[in-house]
Amino acid sequence: MLAQDRAAAGAQMPLLAHLNPEQRAAVTLPAGHALILAGAGSGKTRVLTTRIAWLLQTGQAAPGEILAVTFTNKAAKEMLTRLSAMLPISVRGMWIGTFHGLCNRMLRAHHKLVGLPQTFQILDAQDQLSAVKRLLKAHQVDEEHHPPRQVAWFINGCKEEGLRPDAVPAPNDETRQRVELYRLYEAQCQREGVVDFAELLLRSYELLRDHAPVRAHYQRRFAHILVDEFQDTNRLQYLWLKQLAGDVVDGQFTPRGSVMAVGDDDQSIYAFRGARVGNMQDFVREFAVGQQIKLEENYRSCSNILDSANALIAHNSRRLGKNLRTARGPGEPVRIHEAESDLMEARWLVDEIRQLAADGMARQHIAVLYRSNAQSRALESQLFNAGVPYRVYGGLRFFERAEIKHALAYLRLLENPHDDTSFARVVNFPPRGIGARTLEVLQDAARAAGCSLWDAVSSVGGSAGTKLGGFVALVEVMRERSSGQSLRAIIEQVVEGSGLAGHYRQDKEGEDRLDNLKELVSAAESFVMQEGFGRDAVALPVDETAALTQSPVSQGVDPDAPMGGPQLDAAAGETLSPLVAFLTHAALEAGDNQAQAGQDAVQLMTVHASKGLEFDAVFICGLEEGLFPHENAMADQGGLEEERRLMYVAITRARKRLYLSHAQVRMLHGQTRYNMASRFFDELPEGALKHLTPQRRSAGSFATDYRAYSERQSRVSGGFDLDYSSLGSAGLPARKEAPAHGITQGAQVFHTKFGEGRVLAIEGQGEDARAQVAFTRHGTKWLALAIAKLTLVE
DNA sequence: CGATAGGATTTTTTT
DNA sequence: AATCCTATCG
C-alpha cells in the first residue's frame, strides 16, 4: 500500500481525523527509518504522540517496544500526558524520557556491567565544577593556566564526542595536560561513585557497544524509536541511537529497527553546547532514510509574521530547505520600534503592554524576549514601577538553591560517605570551625592514601574529640536514625540534625531558606506519592523491571544466558531505596526554573528559553548589533547563522502580534554603548513591516552607505550626558563633528601588530576614546585610539 | 578561622 | 551594575 492510500484509509480512524495530509502521512509511515522536518508550529509533538498511539492501536507495536527520547523533562511529560489522553491503555512499559533519564535507567539496571555502584549519585554542573576545582587543587595545577570552567568544558566536550582520555587527540602540551586532567577526573569520579551528566550518556553508550547481549536485548525490545528535537542531538547521543538501532561491524554501520527522527534544522540553537545539526544529514545517509516528510503548515502565526521568519532564515546557507505556510490571513504587520535608550525601550514596551492588556489580551499570553539575561533588569524595573505583573523565566531552579544543595549533600553522604563533593560541601556548613587549613591537610591525606575524605578523617587524627571527628559522628548518627524511616522522616531529621535548620533560624535573612527546606520535604513527599519511588515512565530511575520480574535476579546480564527476556532489563529484586531514587530525581530534574506561579503575568525570558512556546503577542528587544546578533557569537564560522536561527525561533513564537525593538544607547556591564540596529532588520520583507518610529539605517546597509552611519554615530556620541527622555524620536539634536580618528563601529581596520579586525564598539571621546576590535587572528581587544595605530581598511 | 574588601568577569543552557 | 571568587586582614 502506498503511503497516500494508507493515510487515506487511516482517515477513518478517529485518531487521525484532525491531522493534515502531511501529518497523517508522517503518523502512518510504515516501519523503517524516517526523518520528519517539522517547522515551527507545525504540530510536531502532536505527530509524535499520534504516531505512538497509532502504532499501538493498529497493533504494530506493543507498549514495551516503544522508546521515545526527548531533551527536557518538560517535553517528556508533555508527551506522556498527551499520550495518556489519547489512549485507553496504560503508558507503562514504554520508555519515554530524556536521554539522561533513560541512560540513567539503563545504568542502574546494569550497574555491575558498567562498574558502578547501583546507588551512584549524579553530579550536576555545579557539582562537577567543584569536583574539578578539588581535583586541580589536589594536583596543584595552576588555575590560571587551566581555569576550572574550561577544564570541565573540555572534559564534557570529549565525553560528548564519545572519547575517553586514551582516544582524545592531543597535538600539543596544553591539550596533553587537559587530557591528563580528564584522566584524573575520571579516576576521582570512579572512586567516589559519582557520575556527571555526560558520563551517563557515555557509559550507557559503552554498555551497549561493548556488551552484545545487552545490545541485542534492547535492540529487540525497542522496535520503534522516536527522537524529538533531533537537530539538538550531539555526537554521543547520535552514537547511542546507532547502538540501539543498528550494528557496527568493522566501522560499517547496518541499521535495523525503526527510527523516526523529528527535528527542524532552522531551530538548531544549541550548537554552542555541542549540538550537531549534521546529525540530520548523517542520519539520512547512514540509516538510508527512505521517507522524509516536511511539515510546513504552520498553525500558529499570521502570514506577516511567518513571511518575516521565512525571509530572515532564507539568508542562511546550508539549510535542508523548508518554507512555512499558513492558512491564516496576513494579520497585523510586524511592528518595529527604535528607542533612544534601553530605558526608553522599556518604557515604550510597558506602555504597549498596558495597551494590549486594556484591549483585552491576557498578560500571560504576552512575552518579552531578549538575547541575554542581563537585559531583563531594565525591563523588570519598568514593569515593576508601572505595576504590571510579570514573571521571569530562568535563574536558579529549586534543586539548585544553595540550602537545598546543602541538604541534598547531607542526604547523599548518608547513602555514600565517599562522595567527596558532598563531603566538602557541608563539612563546614553550617560553620563548625573546620577551616581551609584543616581541609587541606585532610585532602592531602586522602590523596596520599588514595581514599575518600571520609576515610581520611581517621588518618589525620579525627577521633571523636576533634571537629572533623565530630562531623563524621554527626553523619553517622543521622544515618542510624534514618534506617527504616520514611523519606519524609529522613529529610526532616537531616535538616534538623545537620544544623541547617538551626543555622537559618539564626540568620535573619534565612527565612526564605527555611521555607525552601520545608518545601524540600513536601517535594519528597509528593515524589513518593506520584512516582512510587520512580517506577513511573518519566522520572523513574529504575524501570518497570521490578514489576516484570518476580524472581530475584541479582545481576542484569549473564552473557551466556539466552538472550532477551525481561531479566535483562534490570537488576530486579534490587529496588532502589526511596532516598536514592529521590536524589536521582533531584539531579536529573532540577525543578521549574520559572519564578512564582503568577496569575496573569507578562512572561519574560531569553530567546533560548522561549523555544517550543507560543504567545499571542511577542516583543523581541535589544535588536542591536553586538547584542543580537551577539558579538561573541561572531567569532566562529556559523556563529552568525546560529544567531539568525535564534532570531527565527524568536519570531515564530508569535501568534498574532510581533514587535521588534532596538535602542540607540544602552548600558551594558556598567558602560554606555552605542549600537547600530541589528542587521536582521534588513533581512525582513518590508511589506510585512510597520515602522513605529522614523526609519534609519541598520548594520546591514552600513557598508554601502558609510557616510549616513558615521553621521549618526557622531550624533549619538554627542549626546553623552543628555537626558535621553528629552530626545524626541522626531527631533534630531544638532549634528556634531565626526570623530577625528575616523574609526567607527562596524569598520574594518588594520593594526600593525594584530592585523585585520572589525570594530565592535567605541566608547569615550577625544583622548579617551577606545575601540573594541575583533581581530581575525588575535581575538577581541580594547584599544585606546589615541595610542593604537589603527587604519581603516576598505 | 572567618569576615571583608578588592578584582575580575560577565551569551545563550538542559541534563 | 552586579555577582562571584580570591586574597588579605583581624
TrEMBL record:
ATP binds at A38, G39, A40, G41, S42, G43, K44, T45. InterPro entries: DExx_box_DNA_helicase_dom_sf, DNA_helicase_UvrD-like_C, DNA_helicase_UvrD/REP, P-loop_NTPase, UvrD-like_ATP-bd. It catalyses: ATP + H2O = ADP + phosphate + H(+); Couples ATP hydrolysis with the unwinding of duplex DNA by translocating in the 3'-5' direction. GO terms for biological process: recombinational repair. Keywords: ATP-binding, DNA-binding, Helicase, Hydrolase, Isomerase, Nucleotide-binding. This is DNA 3'-5' helicase. GO terms for cellular component: cytosol; DNA helicase complex. It comes from the Bacteria. One of its GO terms (molecular function) is 3'-5' DNA helicase activity. Its EC number is 5.6.2.4. Belongs to the helicase family. UvrD subfamily. PANTHER family: ATP-DEPENDENT DNA HELICASE SRS2 (PTHR11070:SF2), UVRD / RECB / PCRA DNA HELICASE FAMILY MEMBER (PTHR11070). The keyword Transcription does not apply.
